[in-house]
Amino acid sequence: PCEHNFSPNHMMFCSGTGGGKGPLFNQILMEKIDGKNAFHGRDCVMFVMDPNDSSLEEARKMFKRKGKLTIIDVVKLRAAGPGALKLDDLPAGCVLVVDDVLSALSLQDPARKAVHDLVSEAIVRGRHHQGKRGQCKQGVTVMLLVHNGSCRTLAQIRNGMRWWVIFPKTNRSQCIKMLKQRLDLSRKQVED
After folding, report:
1. How far apart are CA 58 and CA 61, in angstroms?
2. Are 23 and 55 in contact (CB under 8 A)?
3. In sequence order, which residues have a C-beta less than 8 Å from that of residue 127 and are 6 or more positions away?
């Protein structure tokens, strides 16, 4: 964990349903590095399709215990439409978690557009939306859980991620496509 905003730790988890995104995400949230939890003292804003999803139970408990959890049901955002959410609406230095929203909703859905625009803004400008103490000095950290990481509409978001976590057993062809086309690896490098 670092207490500056020079290199935000945005993460994208790509896997099909039941592929292991949730358990790995929870493990990363709970893990301690040098005796410190990287997310200690930070607010968490979650955009989810199902507010009671069991795969995010540990994360909800961790942030709820500290009174720093906000869960936004995406279905209720439809009335607000695109542009309804801005980076300044988020707590400074928070962890922004988006679980399956950009995969489950259609491209024309106003709720998807609102969340997509917010995530794009957080990727580009989020590191400057800092808190004053501790881990909040990192700015906004985005943790995105999606089914199809190579989707064209995610290009700007994908390019701003520091870490990609791809589950190859779930969709081998998607993994190969991302590694070859997005990271310019040769077929031989991918297969090794």
Report:
1. 5
2. yes
3. 5, 6, 8, 138, 139, 140
Q: Which segments of the chain are extended strands (E)?
A: 11-14, 32-33, 36-37, 44-48, 69-73, 95-99, 141-146, 163-166
Give residue-wise pLDDT tens across range 7-62. Answer: 567 888 888 777 778 888 888 877 766 666 667 677 888 888 887 877 778 778 87
Quickly tell me which residue has 């998607």 as its tokens: 174
Confidence of residue 1 (pLDDT cuts 50, 70, 90): very low
Cα dihedral value 142, 118, 182, 101, nearest 10: 80
pLDDT at 131 over 70: no
Q: Cβ atoms within 10 A of the Cβ of 178, count?
A: 20
